[in-house]
## 1
Amino acid sequence: MNGWLRVCLLEEIPPLGARVVNAGKGDIAVFRGADDEVFAVDDRCPHKGGPLSQGIVAGRRVTCPLHGMNIQLDSGEAVAPDTGCTHRYAARVDAGAVFIDLR
């Protein structure tokens, strides 16, 4: 799996929670949704650089803990009326382990 990084076991990320990974590209926040879907974005809000990994997850969105900006986890885009985006990484679960694509 060239380019894919094994992050952890899915069970090591709490439902509606996150885990931070540093893969030489800065911190990446890996989120687990209520239905065990996983998402990965740079752990930096496009507004003021707040740590998205510390935000509140609801559905496929995370709310920045600093100023309340909502980010769509499946695209990295800010939710209107806010603008901006954070880099998104492909993420998947395989045999109970979480992987992110660093390419």
## 2
Amino acid sequence: MAPGLEHYLILSAVLFSIGLFGTVVKRSAVLILICIEIMLAAVNIALVAFSRFITPVELTGQLFAIFVIVVAAAEVAIGLAIILALYRQRHTIDTKKIDLLKW
């Protein structure tokens, strides 16, 4: 029995939920970035699954997934650069201790 669209969407929803939970609960900025990447991977699974099962001839889901991967790579590069700069200035990556916008 081959997995259907529902199986891929359930996997995508579970991964997205895990990423969302980690983003809300974790205090480390690096772990928050990792959880955001898990959420983007879940979106990619859903895009490719919809493309495969709804319009198998067109490659729109795959193209959007590649675009999401490129945006995720840029997000990681910029996010890690910001985290590194904050660590050099504040000597912590704990999001509760970073208060640059407070008066």
